[in-house]
Design a protein that fits this description.
The complex is a heterotrimer of chains A (60), B (241) and C (265). Chain A is mostly helical and 60 residues long. Chain A has one domain. Helix content of chain A is 83%, strand content 0%. The termini of chain A are far apart. Chain B has 241 residues and is mainly alpha-helical. Chain B has 10 helices and no strands. The two termini of chain B are 34 Å apart. The longest helix of chain C has 33 residues. With 265 residues, chain C is mainly α. The C terminus of chain C is likely disordered. Classes of the chains: A mainly alpha (60), B mainly alpha (241), C mainly alpha (265). Chains in contact: A-C, B-C. Chains A and C meet through helix 2 of A and helix 1, helix 2, helix 3, helix 6 and helix 7 of C.
């Protein structure tokens, strides 16, 4: 363990801004990508389903 | 046809079967003629080059030392942008009127035909830019010793710009926003040519030998001219499908 | 051992395989990230030269590696697509590109925030940062080309040509930038170049593994959506939708289905 307290950890030896800007933006981008992929999956399933329904309807 | 006096091919019977190179040579001649009969396009590219280069002293200031220092980079970047603007000339018209499709059906390898088009394109874009560069270099007070290095670097480098550009131009044939898209695809790939080309002039300016830069640039030219026509031909086929 | 590799080159069977693999890779990504962050941010000692700002390397270096490596993997898939003419290859290239671009951007971003305390500026035309920037441009180029082609098969093949031209150029670009940088006496301090303590190195390597696992999981998840979208007219997607489609769609915003939803009910 390198740190004596949690606030010590957050301060990052005076480099808090740089370290946390790096880690924060990375975490944000990864989270955004995961959300995007989940959304994309739902959308593609929904679109395929709608297309199929339309085709079933129009063929009858 | 009056042009036959320049390349009297129709009157000449080759001793061996050279049919495979006839189509490329015909294409080369045709492209040259087409460009030379409508010189406005070619002139526009050249004027673009001159105008872009002239903007820099106005934007930065007329101090001769400063201008001399930025001249290699400015001239090279301007040449790069000018040849980028000329890229649609390579395939766009032939694509629009169906000529490209006919060329793709020819029994000769398409890469060879693309190479012929590249040569014609260079003769009407890269070569004029190269010949114009010394004049513009005077605006930037470049010493005479560096001007010839500039000419050599452009002569070696502009074929690279055309060859890589051909791949980008072929990939974006018939797409919306083709011109800007070509720029985004092609400009990052121009960087090595820019580095070695502008570097050669800069080295001479700093009293160093430009030979290393120029050798690398020449190697890059040979490498690009070997492989790019092949990739461009593949890209043309993809765009024609 | 005869594994029928080409069986999995068909999107239909790859869809199932990817679905079975995603939880494992996603789980591994979470576990390795937690371990890597613990080692890097908590256990590892402060660097005696750079202080705690060096801790950025735990994401900077793995992101830079991953950005670079993803482009090579894309080129590998592109080459496979050209040689075997499989539909899956183009889909994989398409699925990998955004993640590669994301990691390349992270490498640039963290490089800037590492450079500020180290070099005193956010951006230095250092050889590595410059090449990473150019790599980012290559990713943007690929995605821009894909986005402007409507026919997915043409987009696959055009993207493959662009990726292969890019990958041939990458060594030339790296070499030329290196050459340019040494001539211009660029900055020579690099993240993680000096002799590192074993704990630091361990943390970095674990984070690199995490980046790998994440990339595999997310690109497999993305390729599944791409497969559904492109193969929606095929029989197997019909069966799939009949069995699990409604469950997966349940809870989706109405916007995704648009006004069609009302019409089909």
């Amino acid at each position: 363990m390198n740190w004596s307290s949690f606030s010590d950890f957050l301060a990052m030896g005076g480099y808090a801004f740089f370290v946390w800007m790096s880690y924060g933006v990375t975490a944000l981008l990864v989270a955004a990508e995961v959300i995007w992929v989940v959304k994309q999956r739902r959308q593609s399933l929904a679109r395929a389903l709608v297309q199929r329904k339309i085709r079933e309807w129009s063929s009858t | 046809m009056g042009s036959d006096t320049i390349f009297p091919l129709s009157a000449w019977e080759p001793p061996v079967n050279l049919n495979w190179c006839l189509t490329p040579i015909t294409v080369l001649r045709r492209d040259l003629l087409l460009t030379l009969r409508r010189p406005a396009e070619l002139m526009t590219t050249l004027f673009f080059f001159i105008i872009v280069v002239s903007l820099f002293p106005l934007g930065i200031g007329p101090q001769p030392e400063l201008l001399r220092e930025i001249a290699p980079g400015v001239l090279w970047v301007a040449a790069l942008l000018a040849s980028l603007l000329a890229l649609p000339r390579l395939f766009a018209a032939d694509h629009a009127d169906g000529t490209l499709e006919q060329l793709a059906l020819a029994p000769q390898p398409l890469s060879l035909i693309v190479f012929a088009k590249l040569v014609a394109h260079w003769l009407t874009t890269g070569l004029p830019l190269t010949l114009l560069a010394p004049l513009i270099a005077l605006q930037f007070d470049l010493p005479a010793s560096t001007i010839w290095v500039l000419v050599v670097s452009l002569a070696l480098g502009t074929p690279i710009l055309g060859a890589i550009g051909a791949v980008g131009a072929a990939l974006t044939l018939g797409l919306r926003g083709g011109g800007v898209l070509t720029a985004v695809l092609v400009l990052p790939l121009y960087i090595p040519a820019l580095i070695f080309g502008a570097g050669a002039v800069e080295a001479t300016l700093g009293g160093l030998d430009a030979e290393g830069h120029l050798s690398l640039l020449a190697a890059l030219t040979v490498f690009t001219l070997t492989f790019a026509p092949w990739a461009a031909a593949a890209a043309v086929r993809i765009s024609l499908d | 051992m005869a594994i029928h590799w080409f069986k999995y080159a068909s999107p239909a069977s790859f869809y199932g395989l990817a679905g079975r693999m995603i939880p494992w890779f996603a789980g591994a990504a979470v576990v390795t990230t937690l371990i890597g962050l613990y080692v890097g941010l908590v256990l590892a000692p402060t660097d005696f030269q750079q202080g705690d700002s060096y801790r950025i390397i735990y994401i900077h270096v793995p992101a830079a590696w991953m950005g670079m490596f993803t482009y090579l993997v894309m080129a590998g898939w592109a080459a496979a697509g050209v040689v075997f003419n499989t539909r899956l290859s183009g889909m994989m290239v398409q699925a990998l590109a955004p993640t590669g671009a994301m990691f390349t951007f992270v490498a640039l971003w963290t490089g800037a925030f590492w450079g500020r305390p180290t070099w005193g500026t956010y951006w230095v035309w250092d050889a590595r940062l410059t090449s990473t920037l150019i790599l980012f441009f290559l990713y943007i180029g690929y995605m821009a080309l894909r986005a402007s082609i409507d026919d997915p098969r043409r987009a696959d093949r055009a993207g493959a040509v662009l990726t292969l031209v890019g990958v041939v150029n990458i060594p030339i670009i790296y070499f030329s930038v290196q050459w340019w940088n040494t001539l211009h006496q660029g900055a020579s301090v690099r993240p993680g170049s000096s002799s590192m303590a074993t704990v630091m190195l361990t943390g970095m390597l674990v984070m690199a593994v995490a980046a790998w696992m994440y990339t595999i999981a997310i690109s497999l998840a993305r390729v599944r959506s791409i497969i559904i979208e492109r193969e929606q007219h095929s029989a197997w997607v019909g069966e799939l939708l009949a069995s699990e489609g409604h469950d997966a769609v349940a809870g989706t915003s109405r916007g995704a289905m648009g006004s069609n939803q009302q019409g089909t009910r």
